[in-house]
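Chapter review: from sequence to fold.
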Amino acid sequence: MLKLNLGCGSSHPQGYVNIDKSPTANPDVEVDLEEGHLPYEDNSVDEIIAIHFLEHVRNIIPLMNECFRVLKPEGKMLIVVPQNEGTWCDPTHVRAFNKLSWRYFCGYPLSDTYGITCRFRKLSQDFANNCDGGALSVVLQKP
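The token string follows.
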């Protein structure tokens, strides 16, 4: 079972291939995810997690398309991003998300015009308050 942890930073959960562009993060695979390329075959990954990472990605569309490409059918992607005060408290955050952000990656009518080719199915979405104002968790699945 192949599971990826995108933008791992200092978090290295057991059982995941930890991916980051920074050698100081000590990743298993060093890749600049801003370039929108994952070094894996089509339909080869069972699960992807992106925990407090996507808010740092300037060009998210190619990366989300890549995640869809490498996921196996029925493969899942867990995303956690800050919301509310937590969104902009970190000066390295370049984007914000809300409960509607994910529809663009799930076949929303305007998606094609932005170059979005992925068509995830949203399985769940939850908001939890935390010390930074809150976090939004979303589980997407490749049909």
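Two observations follow directly from the output. The helical segments are 60-70, 85-88. The chain is about 10% helix and 30% strand.
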